[in-house]
Design brief:
The protein is of the alpha/beta class. The protein has a single domain, classed as P-loop containing nucleotide triphosphate hydrolases (Rossmann fold). It has helices spanning 43-50, 72-76, 95-105, 110-124, 139-151, 169-185, 220-224, 227-231, 239-249, 260-268, and strands at residues 3-14, 17-28, 32-36, 57-62, 65-66, 79-82, 157-161, 189-193, 205-210, 213-219. The strands form 2 sheets. It has a 6-stranded mixed sheet with strand order 6-7-8-3-9-10, with helices on both faces. A hairpin with a 2-residue loop joins strand 1 and strand 2. Helix 3 packs across helix 4 (110-124) and helix 3 (95-105) runs parallel beside helix 5 (139-151). The longest helix has 17 residues, at 169-185. It is globular. The termini are far apart. The protein binds adenosine-5'-triphosphate and magnesium ion.
Length: 269
């Protein structure tokens, strides 16, 4: 399997404070990886290192390019990002111009920018707010606009850091349907940093991070079957996994259940 991201033995400090020491991680192309961990475990620091915002010692390769001063611009063309507070990412007077911004920076011809912006807006169902002022729209719409800004350059990797923590459940479901489509049908590798355990059911792999170290990393089922890895760091299991773990304990099911339809079937039997 291709490693789209390869972090090889990196170390990083804030001043005297060591956050990462000899840390390595490989992410396969096409994965939808959820990263969870206690507050301060280093999740956002890792994302900022991956985005070239902080420089760590060691080697990082993204999409086959080694992260360094020379390549960072080229790498960032392949990466779309949505961070926690979308307001910080808006710079223009209209939603349309905000979405167009990164393409303008890449000197894409105006006509192409227009059609690309409309294509992304249509895909995300936000065509009707393109003329609005970005700070005037609702929280859910802001998250969708931030996602549009990240997607307009056709990234190979989409990185999300607590990107959807402030939105209503309906928009959240809609966004996860979109992420699934991007991952499965457009082959975009997704890294989703979250503190909401329910989000863990959406991807195919999970990484639990604590104090700059990997506690557990693997396929969803493998990680979610390790209840202790969660409780040890005061993390919760998704509701369905928690319930099926208890049912398993009492011998009522053979294995944990990750699929809602499967759980409903079982409970109605
Ligand atoms: N700019 C900074 N200068 C100094 N220390 C920092 C800085 N940013 C973060 N830290 C510290 O580094 C550690 C890791 O922080 P980081 O933001 O990466 O954690 P996190 O896992 O994203 O946490 P959260 O779940 O709260 O978002 C924390 O102890 C934090 O206080
Ligand atoms: Mg963080």
């Amino acid at each position: 399997m291709d490693n789209i991201i390869f972090i090889d033995n990196i170390s990083f400090k804030y001043g005297e404070r060591q956050i990462y020491k000899d840390f390595s991680l490989k992410v396969d192309k096409g994965d939808f990886l959820s990263i969870i961990g206690p507050n301060g475990s280093g999740k956002s620091t890792l994302i900022r290192i991956l985005l070239g915002l902080y420089v760590a010692t060691g080697k990082i390769t993204v999409c086959g390019l080694e992260m360094n001063g020379k390549n960072v611009r080229e790498i960032m063309k392949k990466v779309g990002v949505v961070l926690e507070n979308p307001d910080d990412q808006f710079v223009a007077e209209t939603v349309m111009h905000d979405i167009a911004f990164s393409l303008e920076n890449l000197r894409v011809p105006a006509k192409e920018i227009r059609s690309k912006v409309f294509e992304v807006a249509k895909y995300l169902g936000i065509e009707d707010i393109l003329d609005k002022e970005p700070h005037s729209i609702s929280g859910g719409q802001k998250q969708l606009v931030a996602l549009a800004c990240a997607l307009v350059t056709d990234p190979e990797i989409l990185i999300l850091d607590e990107a959807f923590s402030m939105i209503d459940i309906d928009t959240r479901d809609k966004i996860y349907d979109i992420l699934k489509d991007l991952n499965v049908n457009k082959n975009i590798t997704i890294i989703n940093v979250t503190h909401d355990e329910e989000d863990l059911l959406h991807g195919n792999k999970i990484l639990i991070l604590n104090e700059g170290q990997i506690v557990k990393y693997g396929l969803n089922k493998e990680v979610l079957s390790d209840e202790k890895a969660f409780t040890k760091y005061n993390l919760k299991l998704p509701f369905m996994v928690d319930l099926s773990t208890k049912l398993k304990y009492y011998g009522l099911v053979d294995d944990i259940i990750l699929d809602m339809d499967e759980m409903v079937d079982l409970l109605w039997k």
